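[Meeting: bench + compute handoff]

Bench side (C.D.) handed over the final construct sequence. Compute side (W.E.) agreed to return the predicted structure before the next meeting so the bench team could plan truncations. Sequence as handed over:
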Amino acid sequence: MSSNTTAGLPPPRTSGSDFARLSRKIADAGLMERRPGYYALRITAVAALYVMGWAAVALVGDSWWTLAVAAFLAVVFGQVALLAHDAAHRQVFRRRRASEVSGRIAGTGIGMGYGWWQDKHTRHHANPNHEELDPDLDPDLLVWSQDQARAAKGLPRLIGRWQAFLFFPLLTLEGFNLHVSSVRALANRSLRHRTLDGALLFVHFAVYVTVLLWLLPPTMAIAFIAVHQALFGVYLGSLFAPNHKGMPILTGQDRPDFLRRQVLTSRNVRGGLFTDIALGGLNHQIEHHLFPSMPSPNLRQARAIVRRHCRELDVDYVETGLLTSYRLALASLHRAGAPLRHARVPA
């Protein structure tokens, strides 16, 4: 078993390295062992909430109170996304096939193309916060560095001026973006299992829309979709924004060793059990990036070992509160957009 295997990413060669020594400490503590009981309970709970949410839509029916159910299902969809994430990293099952099947089932439940997301997320883990190599830093709508701001055109150039103020409002579109990106990726012939992913996406959208139009008047169904997808997007964005935004961005040939590449570009969020549940363990982002296949309930225990190891190596280990993490992320976005605010407006 490799302690640093991410979704489809081969482990780096780290024999005798700073990471190898840390990996032995983690293995000796038994923190790479699977947690079947935990995941059985978590999957059962999330599946029950998913069914309860749709049952509530049927029971509430033709009432504007159904929008409250839409908000509830937005949170449940976020929890399903977190389970898909854990499955893709083989935190739930040791075997690839079981991980892929469970990940696809979870992805289908929220309208996410599993193959597209797995490819994107694997590339992110390989090069977190690298301006040219991390797909999460693509300037498709926002700019993440001042160099990207200077080269920006179209929407990124328009939005980038005030993107820090627009960030959370724009997250209301993230749920829709997840679906659109999943569908667009089907045109990529190199995407593995794209026919299967396409069929599953079609089933999700067909069932989703049919059920809502069956249970609700058209106007209310549209309002339900708007509220549900908008809040789902805000939840998704709020899960991932604290992790890397505002941390150092690598460029060009910046290629520190594996341990420093993962630690220096990631940020942990302090908190207790509620934070672990709400963020799905991603609040322990440093430990997750170092050991992507570690079951999420073990990340909190790994934190003390990793933090001590980093202190011995004099490697910065960044940990903040949740609100502070958002403040740092927004401040970073504001700095990145500075060249656009200072640029002369063409006549």
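W.E. noted at the follow-up: The longest strand covers residues 268-269. C.D. will use this when planning the next construct.
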